[in-house]
Specification:
DnaB-like helicase C-terminal domain-containing protein; 11% strand; 2 domains; 17 helices; 462 residues; elongated; DNAb Helicase, Chain A; Rossmann fold; alpha/beta; 9 strands
Length: 462
């Protein structure tokens, strides 16, 4: 079939020359399950390949499969008499063809050793049907899209295709005995594991040890320095040669660029924000010295106002293709994100929970480290010492559950300007799957839009 022929297919129609199912393979799998014996149980093999639902083309076959799975889950036999009783109890025996149909399926059973093969055929046809349906929906979206949201429509279609391509059914590598991979793991321990990303704060790097697939939440009340902290992490990580991506949902291009220049060149942020004569000759000299390094950084910035998990996935995959490695991704901040589903009926809790879970899946799929800024509720304001806790995360407890690490920002001088700890910020590591929980103290220099180690350093501009 040519491209032109494909485009001439009416929306909702299916090309006649594209197969969409194998009823014989479906019958062979079900028959094998109906003929299971204590010596060999093909239900387990089939369950490892087939999705929980939607893999069966014939609705009656899917109903029978669900009855088999239900019986198997209760450690009951899955022969014809038991499945018949299960279907009768659910009121669906007549709908699937009665006892006669179950007997016919048992007669079409494949051999026990072939159950996995036929299940893979069933699953393969199901993926083909989903692919066809996704292409049809893509054509419908293209016909309905207006010129103002073409990019959004393309991103949504790309997200759907990527979800389809990331098929998790039949993943044999995800299931097995401990011994299967133990030797390889022990050999890997002989090599020092390099952190997938660095923060530029030496004490924090010693504690956090970010690994591929980690999601780190950096949270704090307003004006605690979340953006300064995470933008500093982005610059430090990019300066180490690692690709870095920043999604800025709260600040625009000019504000982010001014913060980068202020932090790296040690130019007063207020000078850059005002511009003109406020930027002194010394400021220009400092910027000029840093400019070649800044232009060479593997740092990408995205100011798209409507950021969804699908957009983040596509950006990460584009950078992996371009650089050959998964980037560090920073989202400032996660509670401003949208879901891919454009459901206006979602509550804020549901939206943030869905976004959080999708971000975790994206990190695991791509191997990227994702750092998400997040807002805290007012719980810490009423607590003695006003120190935040992970339970103060606003809008959804899913953020706390999905995160590999949680860093809570706290400044005593935000509440007491006369505090003897003025100029210090506490990075409270409230959750850390890769190491201990503790508090790391750093110096904040918000006039330069950055956080720094408390120990001396050798920056020539400092």
């Amino acid at each position: 079939m040519t491209v032109d022929q494909a485009l001439d297919i009416p929306v909702g129609a299916q090309p006649a020359d594209v197969p969409s199912a194998s009823l014989e393979a479906e019958a062979a799998v079900l028959g094998a399950c109906l003929m299971a014996t204590p010596a060999y149980d093909p239900v387990v093999d089939a369950m490892q390949v087939l999705a929980d639902d939607g893999d069966w083309y014939d609705g009656g076959h899917e109903t029978i499969w669900r009855a088999i799975v239900s019986l198997h889950g209760r450690s009951k036999p899955t022969g014809v008499p038991m499945v018949e009783a299960e279907l009768r109890r659910g009121g669906s025996l007549a709908r699937v063809g009665g006892t006669l149909r179950l007997s016919q399926l048992a007669a079409q059973a494949c051999g026990p050793a072939e159950a996995t093969h036929y299940a893979e055929v069933v699953h393969g046809y199901a993926r083909l049907r989903r692919y066809q349906a996704t292409l049809v929906r893509g054509m419908q979206m293209a016909r309905q899209a207006d010129p103002g949201n073409v990019s959004e429509a393309m991103a949504a279609h790309q997200t759907e295709l990527e979800h389809l391509a990331a098929d998790t059914s039949g993943g044999d590598d995800m299931f097995g005995r401990l011994a299967d991979h133990l030797d390889d793991h022990l050999m890997g321990l002989e090599t020092t594991v390099e952190a997938a990303a660095v923060t530029g704060l030496s004490d924090l790097d010693m504690v956090l040890k970010m690994r591929p697939g980690n999601v780190i939440v950096v949270a704090g009340r307003p004006a605690m320095g979340k953006s300064a902290a995470t933008l500093g992490v982005a610059l430090a990580n990019a300066s180490s040669g690692r690709p870095t991506l920043v999604h800025s949902l709260e600040m625009g291009r000019e504000e982010v660029t001014n913060r980068i220049l202020s932090s790296t060149a040690r130019v007063g942020l207020h000078h850059l924000m005002e511009g003109g004569p406020a930027v002194t000759d010394d400021d220009w000299s400092r910027i000029a010295r840093r400019l070649p390094d800044l232009k060479a950084l593997p740092l990408w910035l995205d100011y798209t106002p409507r950021v969804t998990p699908g957009l983040i996935r596509s950006r990460i995959k584009a950078l992996i293709r371009q650089t050959g490695r998964a980037p560090l991704v920073i989202i400032d901040y996660i509670q401003l994100m949208y879901t891919d589903q454009r459901n206006n009926r979602q509550t804020t809790y549901e939206r943030v929970s869905e976004v959080s879970r999708e971000i975790k899946i994206i990190a695991e799929e791509t191997g990227a480290v994702i750092i998400c800024c997040a807002q805290l509720n007012r719980g810490s304001e009423h607590r003695e010492g006003k120190r935040p806790q992970a339970s103060d995360l606003r809008d959804s407890g899913q953020l706390e559950q999905d995160a590999s690490g949680i860093i809570l920002l706290h400044r005593e001088d935000a509440y007491d300007p006369e505090s003897p700890r003025a100029g210090e910020s506490d990075l409270i590591v409230g959750k850390n799957r890769n190491g201990p929980t503790c508090t790391v103290t750093v110096a904040h220099q918000f006039h330069y839009a950055r956080l720094r180690d408390m120990s001396p350093h050798t920056d020539p501009d400092d």
